[in-house]
Amino acid sequence: MKETYLSANIETAYIKAWYDEATKRLLCDKYILAWIIISVIDEYKDCSVQYVRGCLIEGDVRTMSETVNPNEVMPAIKGLNTEIQINSEGRTTFDIYFNVIRPNPKENSHIYCDLEIQNDYYPGYDYVTRGVYNCARILSSQYNTEFAGSHYEKLKKAYSIWVCTDPPDKHKNSISVVSLQKNDKVSSVDRDKEKYDLINVISICLGGPEYANYDNKIIRLLDVLLRSKMTPEEKKKILEEEYEIPMSENIETEVNNMCSYIDTVYNEAMRIGNEQGEKRGEESMAMLGRQLLEENRIDELMKSYDNVEYRNKLMDQYGIK
Fold first, then answer.
1. What does each C-alpha distance from 320 to 6, 62, 69 come to in angstroms?
2. Count of structural domains, the chain
3. Of 71, 260, 266, 288, which has the highest C-beta tally within 10 A?
4. Neighbours of 256 (CB within 10 A)
5. pTM, entire model
6. Which domain holds residue 56?
């Protein structure tokens, strides 16, 4: 029976949701999380992965959806509810939300972290602006928990970290930080940075070995985990030898699952691309699908099915008639 346009889109959406959940589950591993923390959060740049993993990450990290495979349990990390509900402000949902204790704090203190996986670089809003919003919600949610009354000095710092798996070429293999800065207009004003440095949005854009900066440790680690078509054995070898991540049962299972998910996404996207190309009488659609898959541009391939203008733009880019 011929696949209808609607059924193809439903299947495509299912594959994307499947991959999204697999990514969140893998990034919840304490070793992976610790590597991200020491790589992009300045407070932890001199800490070891083992110290952050064993002493600083609090409790169990929760993902937005924990029902994909409820029989598997990630390593114990204390975490927070992934939803913030404030009267009159509505509800905000995070992919992964957790606390990290500050190393060598002046007093017992911690940082709130929101980790987002962004597979679609252009989802209809600017993800950096969304990151600022997420940080603002994290700050406002601390009222009557971290502080009460007018004791704003007790606010804890918020980070929103975005892992972008399919950015445009100009942003591939890059890491950038957006934060609050002091700018003196007249004379020099002495301010304690800790009093205003409360919002930080960090983007980690992956790209693959064909782009510059691939030797950056966290970019390579995340690319190997989330994008590369390496075999499970190749990935495990890199994790153990380059990142000193032991292959526990949990992480080995998740690496195997991710490899299976990536293979499924590639195979299904190729099949759908070929079938839709045939259905529409467009050999060019199949050609475009093969080209995008070779470059790991899966989300752009999915988007091209629905958006004719975007599909034509991609075809022009590759010289496909």
1. 26, 44, 41
2. 1
3. 288
4. 14
5. 0.75
6. 19-247
